[in-house]
Amino acid sequence: MLSILDELEKEQDQVELAIAKYANAQLEPFYSKRREILKQNENLDFWPTVFKHVNVLDDFVSVEDNLILDEIDDFYVEKDSEGDKDLSIFMSIRENPFFKAIQFKKQLVWCKDTETQEKDSGFYTSPDRINFEIKKRLPDDSLFHFFGYTTSSKQKERDQNLEIANILADEIFPAAIALFKLSDEDNVTDEYDISDA
């Protein structure tokens, strides 16, 4: 019975991979268009507003990180066109109290299991080596350590980085417009707060 279930699971994985591949192909032009429109409207403060409405990141964001998040001017996620789990995360940040303007890039590449050849045996990260001028040291619990190297010996760090990557790639990036629009709803609620009446 277990072998039948194993086969069904593999079949389901193949279907999910095909769906992911199709979704990536359909959404990529939309995300590129959104990115270009946002670059033409820099005064919109789009990404800082989005990140202010993301509660799922609260456990990873230090108080100091908020000063950096206020300066995000571009955020982008590229997923593997084959529908695999591999992805690259880009974040461009204006000058802030901690460092001068910078573009972070981090890739998460899944390793193949030597027996099954499936990409499920963990991942390694490949951040771009970036030379930038540090103005002030980041706190140890800063979200922005995510953009550094992840070593295989630190399982807790790897698990946390994977969780952050999933939040950034699967929750924040695709839902950015809805998160941004929450700020308008908050402003309307504040303006017409009936609890003050």
Molecular structure report:
This protein is of the alpha+beta class and 197 residues long. It is built from five helices and four strands; from the N terminus they run H-H-H-E-E-E-E-H-H. The chain has a four-stranded antiparallel sheet with strand order 1-2-3-4. The radius of gyration is 19 Å and the shape is globular. It has a single domain (2-186), classed as Nucleosome assembly protein (Arylsulfatase, C-terminal domain). Belongs to the nucleosome assembly protein (NAP) family. This is Template-activating factor I.
Instruction: Give me the CATH fold name.
Output: Arylsulfatase, C-terminal domain
Strand order in space, largest sheet? 1-2-3-4
CATH C-level category: Alpha Beta
Helix and strand composition category: alpha+beta
Cα-atom Rg, whole angstroms? Answer: 19 Å
When the domains are counted, the total is 1
Query: Number of helical segments?
Result: 5
Mean pLDDT value: 81
Instruction: State the major sheet.
Output: 4 strands, antiparallel
Binned strand content: 5-15%
Share in helix = 40-55%
What name goes with the CATH superfamily? Nucleosome assembly protein
Q: Regions with pLDDT < 50 over 5+ consecutive residues?
A: 188-197
Please state the second-level CATH architecture: 2-Layer Sandwich
Concise structural overview:
The protein is α+β, with helices and mostly antiparallel strands and 197 residues long.
Write the layout of secondary structure elements.
Elements: H1 2-40, H2 46-52, H3 65-69, E1 72-79, E2 87-93, E3 102-110, E4 123-127, H4 155-172, H5 176-191
Antiparallel strand pairs: 1-2, 2-3, 3-4
InterPro entries: NAP-like_sf, NAP_family
Organism: Starmerella bacillaris
Protein name: Template-activating factor I
